[in-house]
Automatic annotation (TrEMBL):
(S)-ureidoglycine aminohydrolase cupin domain: residues covered: 43-109
Protein name from the UniProt record: Cupin domain-containing protein
Gene3D superfamilies registered for this protein in UniProt: Jelly Rolls (2.60.120.10)
InterPro entries: RmlC-like_jellyroll (IPR014710), RmlC_Cupin_sf (IPR011051), UGlyAH_Cupin_dom (IPR008579)
Protein species of origin: Nocardioides pinisoli
Matches recorded under Pfam families: Cupin_3
Amino acid sequence: MTRVTTRVLDVATAVPTTPLDPGTVLLGAPEAGSRALAAVSGVEVGVWEMTPGTATDVEVDEVFVVLSGSGTVTFDDGERVDLRPGSVVRLRAGEHTTWVVHETIRKIYVA
């Protein structure tokens, strides 16, 4: 019989944040940061946080699940997604987005 070893990824780990580039900030003084948790077949799994405020971004290919916090992400085509714990969102490389964070967002991502 083969023994399977399970490793736990600690999504509660501290995530260091730094101020966002002032050229991307539309409102407030948001900070963001991430911490990689694992790499699987060239795909990164990690935790990301953004503190309250509004900022623009250009995305990478990613799927994420919101663990805590609240806000919205709006895409250039006008689609708006409300973010709350349990929200699952697909981002595509090159998409331009606007993030409005009301309560610090923490998400786990696969990119």
